[in-house]
Amino acid sequence: MAGRQVGTLAAVAGLGGIGYYLYSAGGDPKLAEKKFEHDAAEAARKVKGDFPGQDKEAKKTAEEGYEAARAKGQSLANDAKAEAAKAEAELQKYSAEAKKKFEDLRQETGREVNAAANKFDKEVNEGINKSKGWFGGLFGGK
């Protein structure tokens, strides 16, 4: 029974540690791993009594710095992609509105041209009918 409790407590402590490192890394698992490795190297140095800044700790510090920069760069890239998608959506919206306005204007212009052509045809036909009557009177027709 006691062994089971120890195992459970060890699992809870392990999960708590994982949660701590993930939280402190902003949810980035690679950065959390590098932070953990850095802390482990620092703890080992303190236990051994080594001097700070020795090779392994310096390497882990550099890796942690790299992962932090990579995570920030990824975050900025994601933000830029989101802004670009938003701008593209706005552009498509304006493009659709412009196409609709152009189509409406084209249809209105077409109606006006057709109306003008019909009016012209009517006037020409009336003129032809009047001229037939006048020419017919001159030449003895009608």
Structure description:
This is Calcofluor white hypersensitive protein. The chain crosses the membrane at residues 6-23. It is a single chain. By secondary structure, the chain is mainly alpha-helical. It has one domain (12-117). The protein is built from three helices and no strands. It has helices at residues 2-24, 29-48, 55-138. The longest helix is centred in the C-terminal third of the chain and has 84 residues, at 55-138. The chain is rod-shaped. The termini are far apart.
Salient structural properties:
mainly alpha; 142 residues
| Oligomeric state of this protein | single chain
Question: For the report, how would you describe the main beta sheet?
Answer: none
Counting DSSP E segments of at least 2 residues, the number of strands comes to 0
Please give the share of residues in helix.
over 70%
How many angstroms separate the termini? 127 Å
H/E element sequence: HHH
Specify Rg, calculated over alpha carbons: 42 Å
**Mean pLDDT reading:** 79
Number of domains as seen in the coordinates:
1
Uncertain segments are: none
Number of H- or I-type helical stretches: 3
Strand-pairing-aware structural class = mainly alpha
Strand content: under 5%
- The rough form would be described as rod-shaped
Keywords: Coiled coil, Membrane, Transmembrane, Transmembrane helix
Transmembrane segments: 6-23
Protein name: Calcofluor white hypersensitive protein
Coiled coil: 70-108
